[in-house]
Design goal:
single chain, 1 helix
Length: 63
């Protein structure tokens, strides 16, 4: 897997063409990881994403 980003709390790897894997650093609170996961689920339900690149501006899906 190719490392595509690193930060204070995690590293992000290219997982598949349209997926990433975020690995949090040891000791990062599980509650914060769960919160971030929940936020990601909400974003995936409410935003349109280009499979090759996440768009900078989130647009709500039309119902």
């Amino acid at each position: 897997m190719k490392l595509i980003a690193t930060g204070n709390t995690a590293e992000v790897f290219e997982y598949e063409e349209d997926k990433v894997l975020k690995l949090f650093k040891a000791g990062y609170p599980l509650e914060q990881i769960q919160r971030e996961f929940n936020n990601t689920v909400i974003m995936n339900r409410t935003c349109e994403f280009n499979s090759a690149e996440v768009k900078k501006n989130c647009r709500r899906k039309k119902k």
